[in-house]
Amino acid sequence: MSVNWYLVVSALIFSIGAVGVLIRRNPLVVLLCLELMLNAGNLALLGFSRTWGDGDGQIFALIVLVVAACEVAIGLGIVVALYRKRLPIDVDELRELHG
Amino acid sequence: MEILFFLFSIVALAGAAGVVALRNPFYCVLSLVVHLIALALLFLLLEAQFVAVAQIVVYAGAVMVLYVFVVAYVGGGDKPAPLWRANAKQRALAIAFGVALFVELCVALLGTGLSSLDGDGAQLGAGYGSPGQIGELLLVRFLLPFELASFLLLVAAVGAVALAGRRPGIDDDDLPVAPRHGLVEFQRSAATGTMAEGVGGYGVTVPMPEPSEAVAAAHADGLPEQSVPAGEGTT
Amino acid sequence: MSLQTAAWLVLAMPLAGTILIALGSRGLLTGKASGWLGTVAIGAAFVFSLITLVKLQDLPSEERHVASSLWDLANVAGVQIKLGIYVDPLSTLMILIVSGVSSLIHLYSVGYMASDRGYARFFAYLNFFVFSMLLLVLAGNLALLIVGWAFVGAASYMLISYWYRRTTATTAGIKAFVINAVGDIGLVLGTFFIFREMGVLDYGELFGGVQEAFPKNDASLVAAMILILVGAFAKSAQVPFHTWLPDAMEGPTPVSALIHAATMVTAGVYLIGRLHPLFEWAPTAADVGVITGAMTLLIAGTIGLTATDLKRVIAYSTMSQIGYMIMAVSAAAYVGGFFHLMTHAFFKALLFMAAGSLIAAMAGEQSLDKMSGFRKAMPFTFGCFVVGGLALSAFPLFSGFFSKDAVLYEIGQRGGWYVVVYVIGYLGSVLTVIYTWRMIFRAFWGEPCEQARQLEHGHLYHAPHPVNPMTGELEDSGVGFPGEEHHIAEQTWQMKWAMSVLAGLAVIGGVIFLPFGIMDSLETFLEPAFADSIIEHPENKGLEGLGIGLTSVLAIAGIAAAYRIWVQRPGTSAQLQGRFAAVHRLFVNKWYFDELIDLLIVRPFAWAGRWSRDSFERIVVNGLVVGGSTGVVKAGSAAVRAMQTGLLRGYAALVIGGLAAVLLYFLIRSA
């Protein structure tokens, strides 16, 4: 079972996540799709770690996990704050930061 | 071995597709949980036991639960239809990008001809993937990233509390428009947003400060729908 | 002190003067200090010129041409131009004349310009002019001469439009500058054609090499020299480039005295004299010079007969006398030409100074029609006019007599068709005498006018309100207009002293070169500069005697005739005007040169400018180039601005699309 397969699966999950980010309008779901992409990266990292045979990739994946958790916390905090202020929870409506 | 791989991969991909396609955000969250568990099983196939368990405990266990709470609070299921998808053109473009990305990645991966990717991988040591090895690596070789990651967690925690903390006047239902308070005012009104105030309402020690003129001016500037006229300038 | 040092100091003094006056004009130099500083600077230049003269005469005759250079200005691609000067008898004579007469005019201006608000500016400009003229004269190569030429033109412009709030003055300044610029084109083009063949611009190498580089009277050399002549004519106000000189009388009188009588307008004469080896090797070009000089002589003389503005009469007289000089140096009569240049500087500057005094007495009024009977009121000014007038008319024993005689004698010596020129010269003499004494008799004889009567009682006339003398427009006496006070020679010692010195020189200045070889110091002095002349001047005592007799007779008869027409029988001139009405009209309208130039040159150019502005400039430059480039930028920025939508998904699309593109690029590159 070569690592190639895992990498292909990882690429597929990554693409699905990318499509999700571009398609969905609910910011919560967008964040979920971001998680998809991160996990795809984790899978690839672990695959490579398996190839090399040392644990560096696993450490990397763990740190990615940590970062993903933090990011989710902040992202959800922002969504909660948006909801509190009665702003529309729609990515297309939130565009005041334009040029 | 291959059977397990294909099984778990299909489940993972199904979960991923579910996240993207399902209307109700709650169902999306659940779909992601399924995806995460399948991914953890894939990790197991890659002999990364600790990471797999961490994935389930931390990711599917804690982060997704947080997600469930927030989805319950925010909802987003009120008007599912308009929030569900982009219009057709954007959809087509997104799918095109996704396909392009996937194809390119596959070409990159499969076409490299790197021998290491085709093989079964290196000979693994005894403690590969075990908590012992992870712990040793974390504390010996990757001490700095470890510490930085913990620092990052601290920052995230503080930030989340700050973002989601209660501020005066936010939940006033009698105000037609929520007054927006900038960061300046937040720094000044340090005593607000406490649990006591949140529970007991106003009338506690610190009175609500008036929005200053600067903040009011900031409000005036920050109105939406204000665009710079793109007319002919003088040369 | 060596010769070179003295010569460089001659240049440095006026330059230092102008810089110091300009720097100090705002606070340090108050009152008349800038005037005195300027005068001292030029006086110092004169002293150094004298030292240069002495040192030059110490050298043996063959070595009296010293070149000295400070550094290379340009040494690239076969062009080598040094910042170098060339000291020989001709340039020494010129710097003596320029610095000497200039210092006297500076002294005069200290008093004359006293109440003018732009006093310091005047002296800074005047010093700058003297520096430029000295640079022109001392330059050791054609490039530096062109630099001095251009500076002199700029100084002339600045000084003509000195009273810059007067529209007539600024218009005159522009006219002078534009015509000068046309001359500059000729000069530079001519220089280029010579340089193209010979590859050098240094005088020594030029003069030595011209006979090998060109065959005699070669067409390209003639063309180059005629182009250089164009430059000389424009600067020296010869027909048809002369129309700027009468208008240049808008400048203050010291400016007219210095620039438009004694120095700048003689630059053309100097140029021809300096380049005489080239002119002698291209006789056709020299003949063009002679003919133009002769024509100018006559035309200017006739216009002077009918001009009514005092300063313009003297201006046309200048034009006419410079015609004599151009004629002379083109006909290889170098000693005569430069002798006349020197004496003309004396008596013409004197005449202008006296005219300034008279105009001040008239409170700015310049028309001869309004002046009469000033003899008793202004005796000193009258005396100066008479002395200057006698010298100008070549009255026997005055300086002008000997110089004009020398000019015509040397031209007559050449024989052949130059006899015609000789006759024209004497015709011009007649005209000179008549217009000079017409001016003097009209202004000083007859019933005293209002201003003269008031002056006889010791009260200087003041006009009720300052006006522009040409158009009658109202003015004030602030910066950019003449000052409130008027200074006449009788009351201002600086003017008196300067005019006295010049009057003395106008009387005795002829002593350095007397006919029949009685005294030939000037000729001996100038001989080393013109030793390489290939033109012969056979002696002809009979012609000399004829010349002296003719000049004297014409002068005396002319004065008598003028006396009869304008003093004894006052109605005669009106009668003559009536009888020769058409001719009179031609002279009064200055032979219609201004109108011709306007019709043939100014209007077509203006039309061409308007047309190109409407067609090429508007459509191509403004529309395509400027509009196109800004349009492209605007469109590009509009496109980029369209990306800043604020839509999260748009940005995400950009990121993912960009990632895909980059991956694609790397894939293709590694394939």
Properties at a glance:
heterotrimer, B: 235 residues, mainly alpha, Four Helix Bundle (Hemerythrin (Met), subunit A), disordered C terminus, C: two-stranded antiparallel sheet, two-stranded antiparallel sheet, 4 strands, 4% strand
What features would you describe in this structure?
The complex is a heterotrimer of chains A (99), B (235) and C (671). Chain A is mainly alpha-helical and 99 residues long. Chain A has helices spanning 3-23, 27-52, 56-84. By secondary structure, chain B is mostly helical. Helix content of chain B is 65%, strand content 0%. Chain B has eleven helices and no strands. Chain C has 671 residues and is mainly alpha-helical. In chain C, helix 2 (33-58) runs parallel beside helix 4 (119-138) and helix 16 (379-392) packs parallel to helix 20. Chain C has helices spanning 3-24, 33-58, 89-112, 119-138, 142-160, 167-198, 203-213, 219-235, 244-247, 253-262, 267-274, 276-281, 283-306, 310-330, 334-361, 379-392, 399-414, 418-444, 450-456, 493-508, 521-526, 541-568, 572-579, 581-588, 593-643, 648-670; strands at residues 66-76, 79-87, 513-514, 519-520. The radius of gyration of chain C is 29 Å and the shape is globular. Chain C has two domains: 3-588, no CATH class; 594-670. Chains in contact: A-B, A-C, B-C. Chains B and C meet through helix 5 of B and helix 25 and helix 26 of C.
The total count of helices of chain C amounts to: 26
| Fraction of residues in helix of chain B | 55-70%
Percent of residues in β-strands of chain B:
under 5%
The biggest sheet of chain C amounts to:
2 strands, antiparallel
Oligomer: heterotrimer
Question: What strand line-up does the widest sheet of chain C have?
Answer: 1-2
β-sheet strand percentage of chain C: under 5%
Inertia-based shape of chain C: globular
